[in-house]
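tool=predict chain=A
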Amino acid sequence: MAGPAALLSVSDRTGIESLASALQQYGYALYGTSGTAAHLRAAGLPCEDVEALTGFPPLCDGRVKTLHPKIFAGILADRTRAQHLADLAQYDIPPFAVVAVNLYPFEEAVRRPGASEAEIVEQIDIGGVTLLRAAAKNYAHVAVLSDPQQYAGYTTALARGGSSLEERRVWATAAFARCERYDAAIAAHFAGAADLDLPDTLRMQLTRAARLRYGENPQTRAAFYLGPNAMRLPKQLSGKTLSYNNLLDLDSCLRLLAPIEAPLGFPAGVVRHAVAAAIVKHTVPCGLAARANVHDAVVAALGADPISAFGGIVACGAEVDEATADVLASRFLEVVAAPSFSPAALERLQKKKNLRLLEFDASLPTALLEAGKVRSALGGILVEHPDPSAPPDAWTVMTEIAPTREQWRDLLFGFGAVRQVKSNAAVVISDEVTLGVCGGQTNRVAAVELACERAGDGVRGAVLATDGFFPFADGLEAAIRAGISAVIAPSGSVRDAEVIEAARNADIALVFAARRYFLH
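tool=predict ok
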């Protein structure tokens, strides 16, 4: 039987020269489809075109290159069966020990603006998928590499004498998963190319990103999985292993740091503080503040509700410096997350061995708000995405008294905060600091009353944000009695006129938003 051979057919040529060079070094005969073979020869590496083996040139404008018995017998032959080996010898077929294939970029073609249907269809790979499936089926004898990131692991295996059965099974699993994702993208396109985010059939291919200490409770085992297009997880710098509850709280905390876009009707020139810090407990914000620097923002956020902040999750919108680290180290906290930590801050905080320190990409908070959501209910799941065709939010002053510039700033800050609080939700804000946060109530009057009560003496002259409209005037009247001076709430109640009249009679500013932001 001939010596080992490798079949290389890649549209993404990242790392292919290094892989081919290693294969040549260890005595592999190299075969490649026309483009890949030419690329390797140009790099000074000997590589035969597959047509030298099949006896056929690429046919039908390259649609048919590898679909031939001499290719697939060389991949699928069971090296432990005498008849299979005899077939290879009789027809002079090399036994392929490794198949490196990546597929035509169909997904990229679908996303490319202006791509025609003919151009998209042309990017449906036939031979590549078949090669991957054949090599993955025969993983007992063949290593299948479907991603350039696998090349380094394979060349390392070559150096120690060859890949193990376990390694080949892992690569085979990845190849089958790649084919599944590829076919799902094609099926989604044909089901309705304009609605790829909400296909008729939803297929999810998730990869384990981290083992967790436990899920929601310590008596459970859990892991966290991400999809192929998921955002990069924050990097853990120190501390205990994360639990799912930590991740859930972190998600809520980071969303609070996303910049708040001013709606239509918001006055120009309102000055907002540049740096935010957020504290979350059980997914509920218990401290959110914006200041000129991270130290002052953290101090203000911690001071908003010190009792609730105990054992909470803190996220900072800028690098944590040593002075901020001193403040954070003086509290019991589960997680501190930031885009970066100064060396002195990192040294200070790492002394608290159980404190988890996480470093996240500065773009992550905004990316979380813009990404789709998947949630479960009744054994099924909801998939929702922000609708790019939805009209923007628009704010309208409904009273003769308009908010001051400081109130406008706080109303915007508060509306950004309240959308991250479970409905029914109400938030009291003063000087871009949350003083009272209340969520998860079954009636809006109670939400307002509890938020105002938690704000203490600071409620007088503060502003209030609520995530939904006031169904009656009583909710607004509760805010007025507490001393609130301005309110932002969505419109939409059949009694909006009564609510507006109550605000006018109390001489407070009432602003209606066009959008609501319920969180369940």
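The chain has 20 helices and 21 strands. Residues 235-370 form a domain with the Cytidine Deaminase; domain 2 fold (CATH 3.40.140.20).
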